[in-house]
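HUMAN: Now follow token order:
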Amino acid sequence: MDKELNKKIITVSFAAAAALTAVVIRVLMQTTAASFGAVQRLWAQEWFQHGIPVAIALVLFFFLQFNKKILVWADEVVSELLKVVWPSRKDTTAMTIVTCVMLMISASLLFVFDIVSRNITQMLFALGRMVS
């Protein structure tokens, strides 16, 4: 059961990676088509717009899915991720509150340091103008 779940998670992850790759390739090709006339002529054809990104995504998916070393690595990653113990909602809320309070304290200290350094700088400039 555990191995079967791992295989399903790995396959879905590889499919998602391939789909994301297709989107990125399409955007890169579209950007390139806007810059270069030769690519613009190719971009006008349907097979180029849709076929190339899908073909690259399929090649990537099959490469990932049937490469033994990658499958072993992905199985180890999924096994380790399934061992992660997530904090409870109460713990997450408490940690979020502590983080927000510390952020406010840090922002206040930076604000005070900024005001003090601005005033010191203004005093030094004023002193410099009086001397010269």
User: Anything to note?
Assistant: The longest helix spans residues 89-131. Residues 78 and 127 are 65 Å apart (CA to CA). The chain is about 90% helix and 0% strand.
